[in-house]
Amino acid sequence: MSIICLGYSQKPGLERLLEQKFSAEPGKHGRWVYEAGKGDIKPVNAPLITSRYPRSKVYQVKLTNYSGNEAKAAVCVVMHDTVKNKITLVEHISYSGLSKPFRKQFLTQKFESKEQLTAFIQELSAVMLRGPAYKFELTNYSDSEVSYSLTNGADGSTTTSTVRYKRRLLWTNAQYTIRDAAVSLITDVNPVIGTAEGVR
């Protein structure tokens, strides 16, 4: 599934909120900062998500991550609740992996069919992918579970801004446990070190 970013549209209210939430707080390690006028805010077309949260809109925005003496810009995603004027940040995958706060809010929501639920998971996964360096691959599809593996691409030659991967790498296996047409549990499995962490 391809998630399309529409043309640039300046959102004054959203920009003010971004400036407040992601201000240049000194001394905070690993902080994200929104630089006014440089965020390149673009709405993300995510109809399955916004149909369940009609008061919310999804955007991609460029933030700068400050870690020690280093500052690197990355494209992130924010889900903006326009009524409560709150933001859920989806950090770039290279910084924090798959976003737990973003996915947690969709747990236990009922769907009319497994096909509808699977389409929703696909959109959820696509929203978290920013840039060409990563890819989700469907690894399991059963009545009780849908799983996606996060890889660096099928051909093993993915290039990021800092490194070129010469072989296929598996980062995370996201397992969505299904019960009564809803996701009852999300488990992120690290295949390298064999750890599993639940999203509840």
Task: Describe, in plain words, how this protein is organized in 3D.
Strands 1, 2, 3, 4 and 5 form a 5-stranded antiparallel sheet that branches. The chain has a 5-stranded antiparallel sheet with strand order 6-7-8-9-10. The protein has helices at residues 12-21, 47-52, 93-96, 100-104, 114-128, and strands spanning 31-33, 42-43, 56-67, 70-81, 86-90, 135-141, 145-151, 170-179, 182-190, 195-199. The chain is α+β, with helices and mostly antiparallel strands and 200 residues long. The longest helix is centred in the middle third of the chain and has 15 residues, at 114-128. The chain has 2 domains: 1-90, no CATH class; 98-200, no CATH class. The radius of gyration is 17 Å and the shape is globular.
Number of extended strands = 10
Q: What is the overall pLDDT average? A: 82
- Name the helicity range: 10-25%
Number of helices: 5
- CA-to-CA gap between the ends? 25 Å
Query: What summary fits the major beta sheet?
Result: 5 strands, antiparallel
Global geometry = globular
Overall number of domains: 2
Rg over CA atoms, rounded to whole Å, is 17 Å
The portion of residues forming beta strands comes to 35-45%
N-to-C order of helices and strands: HEEHEEEHHHEEEEE
Structural class by sheet pairing and helices: alpha+beta
Topology:
Elements: H1 12-21, E1 31-33, E2 42-43, H2 47-52, E3 56-67, E4 70-81, E5 86-90, H3 93-96, H4 100-104, H5 114-128, E6 135-141, E7 145-151, E8 170-179, E9 182-190, E10 195-199
Antiparallel strand pairs: 1-3, 2-3, 3-4, 4-5, 6-7, 7-8, 8-9, 9-10
